[in-house]
Amino acid sequence: MKLQIFDLNNNLLSEKKQLISENALNAWETLSLGASIPQNGKIKVFLVNDTEQEAYFDELEIVISNKPTTKIVQENNYYPFGLNMRGLEKVGSPDDKFQYNAQTEKDEDIEMYETPFRGYQADIGIFRQVDLLAPLFPSITPFHFGYNNPVYFNDPSGLLAQTEQPSSGSGGSSDEMEAELKKKQSSSSSNNSTTSSNFMSQEAGVRGNGGVKPNSQQEFNLVKGTLPQQDANRLSLNEKGYIQIEGNEAGSEELEYLRTIIMSGKTIHLKISDTYSFKNRENKVIRNKKFDASTYGITLVPNGQKFYSGGQDHYEGSADKDIHVIINSNAKSTLTTIFYPPNAPSNSFTVSNPVAISTITTGHEMYLHVLFYLVFSKKGRLDNYNHATENTKIGGGYFETMIEVKVALNLGVITNASIKKLAKQYIKSVYSEWNSTWKPLTR
């Protein structure tokens, strides 16, 4: 049994759990957890079996012991796929919309949960848009939620289901998924080597042989810095030096971005350096190119990246089959992020702490360029991200700026109260623009 306490902004304040003992092998055992509620917020109580031993639960009860000062203003109960059990619920005032499927907001008029990538309709148990990673799982409908097993799987991002079975730090895998991967691997031949290698790399990522590999503890700390503290505490390195996420509960959107990257099956190397090596358009490897001080970092992907700089086109790709994120150790001493509206007054904040600059750059490269390459780049080139979004304002900088703002808020480097308020307003306005302008591109 697990009990979690959140504040009104869905930040985890504390967590308790109690496990059954060997006494439960022969008789019913009573589990009991107690907690003091420090402020207005939410509690989540649930039963989960993290072992291979079958367990049966019954008669879950929540008791408020100090009724004069503590009261329940809203209660939600769900069928397996997330449809509310309205006869058992208590409507809140104000009504909290962040209910089923972790931290995704519900539109009650259409019974739809808005995840970062798709809309989930709980009354019929499917997403309304095609899974962007559907080619990885051809035997499963692209509209599925949690491999059609919502008791075992969750999908807070709308991109990749995660298991509640903590068999690996990256979120585990399902029997169906493993069977599909092995089927693809065993049926590989010379004329479908690309498809086969994709599935083998996916399997490698699931099993901890791929994912995000920091060059040292310094780079690992940068990734942790991009997350809220409670999520950063869940990161560790496995025996091969890859980042893993402890536990399988959904976290912040930044954590789910990271989880999606880990589960992609690709290997992403993260390194701090003042030089980088790349492959040019003629497939020649250029080694130890010096960073310009105005460049904070770069993402190098297989098949290359085309970008415009200094009045001409440049083409730089990964020197191998992996993705490389290099953070410039000799970048400028200040970083200014400007809020370009939608629907928010234009303003900015400036960061001068070198570690904070590198951390914000890491979030920018990982959660924008790496993630977009994995999700949207159909031809395998990073510039396909630009083509996919060139007709939208978000592709021109809104989402990019939002990532930097979110990381800066996580770091606590925005100290001015009015700018901090504007930053949070900006995040909401970008999501509004996402839903109306950009999200249809994924459907």
In short:
With 443 residues, this protein is of the alpha+beta class. The protein has 9 helices and 21 strands.
Overview of this structure, please?
This protein is an alpha+beta fold and 443 residues long. It folds into 2 domains: 190 residues, no CATH class; 176 residues, no CATH class. Helix content is 26%, strand content 21%. It is built from 9 helices and 21 strands. The strands form 8 sheets. It has a 4-stranded antiparallel beta sheet with strand order 4-5-6-7, with no helix packed on it. Strand 11 and strand 12 form a beta hairpin. The longest helix has 23 residues. The chain is globular, with a radius of gyration of 23 Å. The C terminus is likely disordered.
SSE blueprint and pairings:
Blueprint: E1 2-7, E2 12-17, E3 41-46, E4 105-107, E5 112-114, E6 119-121, E7 126-127, E8 153-154, E9 162-163, H1 175-186, H2 193-206, E10 211-214, H3 217-225, H4 229-232, E11 235-237, E12 243-245, H5 253-262, E13 267-273, E14 275-279, E15 285-290, E16 297-300, E17 305-309, E18 312-316, E19 323-328, E20 335-339, E21 347-351, H6 354-376, H7 383-389, H8 398-411, H9 417-438
Helix pairs in contact: 1-2, 3-6, 5-6, 6-7, 6-8, 8-9
Would you tell me the structural class of the helices and strands?
alpha+beta
Assembly state:
single chain
Mean pLDDT across all residues, rounded?
75
Cα Rg: 23 Å
Strand content: 15-25%
Number of strands: 21
Please write the string of helix (H) and strand (E) elements.
EEEEEEEEEHHEHHEEHEEEEEEEEEHHHH
Query: How many DSSP H or I helices?
Result: 9
Shape: globular
